Amino acid sequence: MTDAVLTPLEARVLGVLVEKQHTVPDTYPLSLNALVAGCNQKTARQPVIEATESDVLVAVDSLKYKHLVNTVSGSRVARFDHNMGRVLGVPGQSVALLATLMLRGPQTAAELRLNTERLHRFADVSSVEAFLDELSTKEPHRVVKLARAPGEREARWAHLLCGEPVLPAAGAGRTDGFVGMADGTGTDVSAGELAAVKAELARVSSELATLRAELAAFKSALGVD
Asked: Could you give the C-alpha distances from 178 to 46, 165, 200, in angstroms and in order?
């Protein structure tokens, strides 16, 4: 099951379990309510989504079949934990990097060092790069270094647990990682995931409209046509 391709929501669920294991250990393993809240939280997520309980349960069931998630017994409320490191055969440092990529989308090594700090504290960027290099060369490949986009100083890394990332066309700009599948199977998504994409497009459109309004006001103040 280590080579199974995950859906975007499965990757989000798995990333949340890894994150919360380190950031809120007193409430880990997570209840379904906590897991849904973690998937839908507005911070440290790219994209922000609105998955329902049923969406998350479907993802959990699939992850259980792939042996990546367990249901913890001995509690009146079902709780879930992950087996990511053991099933994928990677160390804790790599689990932290993969989880952060799943939660936040493609990032540079420097961004990953900053964003993984609560999951694992890397000594320096070269340490991050060493684990990324191992993940990108050891079979099966778990991450890929993306071609540096025009205007970017550093190349970003993306995870491969949802399949090969589809890069935007030249001039299309940075997507920050709701990337879909190279074989065109991106239609196999839940209603929550589709809503997430629409919400992200609406957010970007709103930001663009705001920037245009601010630019127009600035030009007017300067008397520039």
From this structure: 7, 9, 10
162-214: pLDDT as tens digits: 999 866 554 444 444 443 333 334 434 444 445 445 555 655 566 666 777 77
- Separation between Cα atoms, residue 195 and residue 40, nearest integer Å: 12
Mean pLDDT of the chain: 85
SS3 string, the chain, reads CCCCCCCHHHHHHHHHHHHHHHHCHHHCCEEHHHHHHHHHCCCCCCCCCCCCHHHHHHHHHHHHHCCCEEEECCCCCCEEEECHHHHHCCCHHHHHHHHHHHHHCCECHHHHHHHCCCCCCCCCHHHHHHHHHHHHHCCCCCEEECCCCCCCCCCCEEECCCCCCCCCCCCCCCCCCCCCCCCCCCCCCCHHHHHHHHHHHHHHHHHHHHHHHHHHHHHHHHCCC
Q: pLDDT confidence of 113, banded at 50, 70, 90?
A: very high
Task: Identify whether the C-beta of residue 97 lies closer than 8 Å to the C-beta of residue 143.
Answer: yes
Closest listed residue to residue 31, CA positions, set 44, 42, 20: 20
pLDDT per residue as tens digits for the range 134-149? 999 999 999 999 999 8
Task: Look at residues 104, 97, 69 and name the one whose alpha carbon lies nearest to residue 84.
Answer: 69
C-alpha torsion sign, points 13, 63, 110, 169: negative
